[in-house]
Every structure is written in C-alpha cells, then in structure tokens.
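Hi support team,

I submitted a single chain yesterday and got back a structure, but I'm not sure I'm reading the token output correctly. Could someone confirm the output below corresponds to the sequence I sent? I've pasted both exactly as they appear in my results page.

Thanks,
R.
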Amino acid sequence: MLAERRHQLILRALRSGGPASVTDLCGQLGVSAATVRRDLVRLEEDGLLTRVHGGAVIGEGDQQGDQPFAEVVEVGVAEKDAIAVRAAAMIEDGQSVLLDIGTTAYRLARQLRGRQLTVITSNLVVYEELANEESIALVLLGGMVRREYRSLVGFLTEDNLRQLHADWLFLGTSGVRPGGQVMDTTVIEVPVKRSMIAASEQVVLLADERKFPGTGMAQVCGPRELDVVVTNTAADAATCATLQEAGVTVVRT
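Hi R., thanks for writing in. Yes, this is the structure output for that exact sequence:
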C-alpha cells in the first residue's frame, strides 16, 4: 500500500473513531508497527495529528475533508472570475503556466482560451476546458485520479513535475492562516502542490475572501514561498498586511 493511501486511512480512522493505538492501526492497515510509526511522524510534521504514548490523536486544527468539485464550482463565481481576469493579465503570450486543482484555477483557464501559451495542469476540468484550444500547448500531468475532486495526485504527478519548469504557477488553497501560511484540507494534495512550487519561477496564490482563514489542516507553504496573492477587496486586511510584510505582492480585485 502506498504511503499516501496509508496516510488517508490513518486520518480517516482517527476522525471517525478518535484516538488509536499503533497496534490498532497495524491491524487496520496490515503493515508493521515500524511503518505505522513512520507514518505518524510524517503526519505529525504536517500538522495533521498529535502522537501520544502508543498511538495518535487527530490534530486540533480543522478536521473537515475537502469538498467535491461539483459542490463548490458554482460558489462565489463572480469573485473567482474577478480574480481570474486579474491573474490572466499577468501572463504574457509564449509563457508557460502551471495551473493547480480547484475551481478558481478552472475560472482562470477560461480566461486563457485563444492565448498562445503552454499550460501544464493536474486539474482535469482545466484539461477539458482547454483541450480544443489549438493555440495552447496543453500538458496533462500523470497520476492517480481523484474522481470527485477532478484532480491527479501521487508520486507519478510529483515525478512529472520534477521534469518540468513553468514561468507561472497559479496555486489554489483551502485557507490562508493569519500568519500567511497556505493550507490544504487533505494530505494527498500537499506533496503535489509543493512540487508545483518547486517547478515554478513565479508563484501566485488565488484566494477569494472566503479563504481567509478558510479551512485546512496541512501546511503547503509559508508566505515567503509566494510572490503574489490575488484576492478580493473583502479579504482579511490583517492577513494581507502580514503577507505584504513577508514580501508578497497583494493584488485586490
């Protein structure tokens, strides 16, 4: 069983059944105690749980899972479109653009139709939106399909990203903490997002006002790994000020 799948199952067990021992988790996963302990160390480092004597408990942060794409695609469309228009204006023809998963990246893809660009993505909805755009060189990353979330994840996605470099990354998020940390609600997406950051020259976070603070248990990156945040005028002023103090350009639509 892949580590990412074990991590999902461990978190699911802790959310549904409360604290669990290493022995219990070994039985559920069918792996050794040493493997479970390594997994617990990794999940604790990501802020997803707290290790206790003989086992673990779920972290104190947000315990919600991410919402399927279909549930959020029609939420805040006007705000997302305003962000997408401003983000699209940053891109010059001929450049390469990496688009993250999520609905705001999808709205941005719609703004890129007809442009002379290379678009790289793990977002299946972005792929579908741009598949017939002959002016766009479209690169779909490999990986395991998360059907309800319309995304590709896993070590294949990360390996693909290590072979690529993009002028721009437009990153989505579940939430932005008051200290400027970019968060996500599920551990399996985090390594892909981090690989996207490493593969990109300029990192732009797309985050409407609902993402301040939004949700999310796992930290994707800190503010110093961002170049630009594009958001709405109603986004939390104190968080935006913290981002600016860290050297991030905050663009309000």
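A quick pointer for reading it: The chain has ten helices and 15 strands. Let us know if anything else looks off.

Best,
Support desk
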